[in-house]
Amino acid sequence: MFASLVALALLAVAFFRPGNMVLYLGFAFMSFGTLAIIPPSFVGGTTILASAITFLALAGQQSLKPMGTQWMLSGITRLGDLGLLFLFTIWAVLGAFFLPRAFQGEILVYPMRALGLVSYAAPLQPTSSNINQALNLVIDCGVAAAVYAMSRRPGFTDSMKRALLIGGVFVVITGLADFLTASVGLGGLLDPFRTASYVLMADSEVAGARRLIGLMAEASGFGSVAVSLGALLFFTRYSYDVKTRFRYVYPISLVCLVMALMSTSSTAYAALAVFFALHLLDILWRMMFGLKKFSGPLFYEIILSFMALLLLVSVVAAWAEAQATIMSMLDSIIFNKKQSSSYLERSAWTNQAFQAFWESNGVGIGVGGARTSNFFVNILASTGVLGVLLFGLFIARVFFARIPRECPEEFELVHGFKLTLFVAATVAALAGTTPDYGTLVACIFGVCVGLATHKLKGDTEAPPL
Predict the structure, then answer these.
(1) Three-point CA angle 64, 47, 14, nearest 5°
(2) Among 87, 172, 284, 322, which is 20 to 30 Å from 64 by CA?
(3) Could you give the residue ranges of the DSSP H alpha helices within 184-319?
(4) Residue 372: which region, alpha, beta or left (left: phi > 0; alpha: psi -120 to 50)?
(5) Quick check: helix, strand or coil at residue 384?
(6) Which of 182, 156, 175 is nearest to 19 (CA)?
(7) pLDDT of residue 317
(8) Distance (Å, rounded) from C-alpha 156 to C-alpha 162?
(9) How confident is the model at residue 296, as a pLDDT?
(10) Residue (of 17, 153, 96, 28) closest to 450 by Cα position
């Protein structure tokens, strides 16, 4: 209760203060995945996370600023900007109310809310999950529109870069807090921040090593946010000045990635693999087409990466106990993953949802109608062919967003955000139980489309943030 009251107080102060405190608070709260800003017992057991309410407040705050509502509306009503995402959201919301009733009792699904510890397939029917997921998508679209409007104001790029650093810092703080309190047997000290009505997997182990969960419900949740924010910081590193890059960006992003590794989450490991592959491709791209001023930093990055790899290989090769531990972990979370009950259950969710898509004749069964382990299959099952088409076209719009080379800071920011979308897509493809793409991805949408639109049109003059 105390942590929830503090979060509410911080949000109230931030909302009425000028500047970007709400944005910073939203990125900080991304690491508090078990902090319900309103005790669940007060709202019928429903968990309302501090991060979700903070980003909703961001959209509300922006709508009250000069020209804010007009810019948000212009963004969602232009097909070339956020219009396709808005149409997708409208279709998803309508489907949430009508499709479960249209196919009620005719299609088997794994419900979003399982009855008991093990979920089982049941006939489709309208539930509160339809409303919850529809509201989540509305919030996400509102966040994208708010960030789109913010990108038109002077100083936005600096504010977003500061928000990324704050998000990374809180990943480190919550990860360290979980690690240290668990190491000395004082894990209960973090209980005030774990007020959500989720099943908490705080004592999960792999090969005798406790999995790092930070202030999330489970290791995969913490690993996902750690690798996403770590990758986002690292990929946008050249948008920061040299001093900030070496003092803050490199250390914070690398510690975030190390903490993703300590989560021992197979989802986080897959995302880390995608991150490293993208990093190598990005280096090659920059060497061939990038600005010459980055050739020196890139050379040092290659040398340091090679030295770090050699050091890691040398330590593992010389330490027999480390070899045994690493092989045991890899065996548990990767090689034998398909034999685990968790993998088999999650695969059943996804397969049943895909079957539901076909049984609905490609129309979909409504968001919140089915649980999956793959975000993209959930979008397909929930919103059908039309939803996938609208969402897919919008994703293409994001990747085609272009920033003029004359705006290097904005170019580097958008470039890094686009690369991070691949990392986020990896997480979503392996652990996306709902059609909710999340506030972080919504921010990426708003930044990429907003900066590209306004920089190309040259209409960034506006009242300050």
Answers:
(1) 30
(2) 87
(3) 219-235, 242-244, 250-262, 266-289, 295-318
(4) beta
(5) helix
(6) 156
(7) 62
(8) 10
(9) 62
(10) 153
Mean pLDDT of each 10-residue bin along the chain, 465 residues long: 84 89 95 82 70 92 89 92 96 95 90 62 88 92 95 91 96 93 81 73 58 84 93 94 92 93 86 90 79 64 72 62 55 57 78 93 93 92 96 95 85 94 93 90 95 68 48
Q: Quick one: pLDDT at residue 19?
A: 83
In contact, 49 and 231? CB cutoff 8 Å: no
Q: What is d(CA 430, CA 221) in angstroms, rounded to the nearest whole number?
A: 12
Confidence (pTM) = 0.89
User: Which token pair is 11?
Assistant: 């949000």
Residue 1's identity, in one-letter code, is M
Locate 267 and state its tokens.
Answer: 């989802």
Q: Transcribe 38-97 into DSSP letters.
A: E-GGGGTT--EEHHHHHHHHHHHHHHHSTTHHHHHHHHHH-IIIIIHHHHHHHHHHHHHH
Residues 6+ apart with CB under 8 A from 202: 182, 187, 194, 213
Q: Are 61 and 22 in contact (CB under 8 A)?
A: yes
Distance CA 444, CA 147 (A): 9
Separation of alpha carbons 255 and 263, rounded Å: 12
Give residue 176's pLDDT.
94
Which residue bears the tokens 């090969």? 207
3-class DSSP state for residue 200? coil
Q: Are 52 and 11 in contact (CB under 8 A)?
A: no
What is the C-alpha separation between 88 and 76, in angstroms, rounded? 11
Q: Pairing state of beta strands 48-49 and 122-123?
A: unpaired
**Measured torsion, CA atoms of residues 9, 26, 265, 425, in degrees rounded to the nearest 10:** 150
Number of Cα atoms under 13 Å in the Cβ half of residue 431: 21
- Cα angle 416, 76, 427; round to 5: 40
Nearest Cα neighbor of 349 from 430, 256, 264, 438 is 430
Say how far apart CA 433 and CA 30 lie, in whole Å: 18
**Length of the chain, in residues:** 465
Residue 409 CB partners (closer than 8 Å, separation 6+)? 157, 239
- Helix axis angle, 375-399 to 84-102, nearest 10°: 160
Contact 136, 52 (CB under 8 A): yes
End-to-end Cα distance, the chain: 32
C-alpha torsion sign, points 70, 71, 75, 80: positive
What pLDDT score does 286 carry? Answer: 79
